Amino acid sequence: MANANRPSIREINKQRLRQDILDAAGRLFSAEGYQNVTFRRIAEEVGYSQSALFYYFKDKEEVVKALCVQTFEGLSKISAALLAELPDPLERLLKMSRAYIQFGREHPHHYRLVFDPSSELIGQNRVEFIGEIGREQFSLFRQLIADCVEAGAFAAGAPDVLSPAWMSAIHGLTSFLIIHAHSPWVNPPVLIDALLDRLVVGFQQGPPSRP
Questions:
Q1: Does residue 12 sit in the same domain as residue 110?
Q2: What is the reported pTM?
Q3: Is the pLDDT of residue 1 over 50?
Q4: Do 127 and 71 fall within a single domain?
Q5: Phi first, then psi: what are they for 62, rounded to 5°?
Q6: What is the pLDDT of residues 62-90, one digit of tens each?
Q7: What is the DSSP letter of 35?
Q8: Same structural domain, 131 and 51
Q9: Which long-range contacts link 157-165 to residues 24+ away (Cβ below 8 Å)?
Q10: Does residue 37 lie within any of the structural domains?
């Protein structure tokens, strides 16, 4: 008797072709840039007619969104693996921060597409889209910061304030390293260490007293 929960051959082939389209689009976007790749070009790369692609995606923007969601799901898997092996809250936060930066450097086109406000490829619902694919990471960093505060690794503070501050810093460095990926005067390991070291010191000391 066939397993009712097992996908049919037709469904497997459908999923495989959808993945082939995403893989082909990813190769083209990385090599030629999002703006320079047409829906027809993606169809040619995957070896199907443009009309066949419409069965899976209505346009290039939908391909881009699916590719970005899939890419950031990869970051979530990395996060889960990292956090499972580290008991110390501060070590977890630092390890996750490094993984986030490295992820952005390894997927520069996807990262810039999502977070670059000048990009028009994800339509008018940019805020909703970013919230959709970034919600898990934002929640994760908030919890990591809260754990550090609770463990005494950081000075007391509201995670809803501290977490965006921390993420703004690592996002800024990630974007900087992507933009200057080929600059001879940029040393990524040194900059990453410098940023994280200073963030830790600042969060341990807490804010200065203000009049």
A1: no
A2: 0.79
A3: no
A4: yes
A5: -70, -35
A6: 888 888 888 778 888 888 787 877 889 99
A7: G
A8: no
A9: 157/203, 157/206, 157/207, 162/203, 163/138
A10: yes
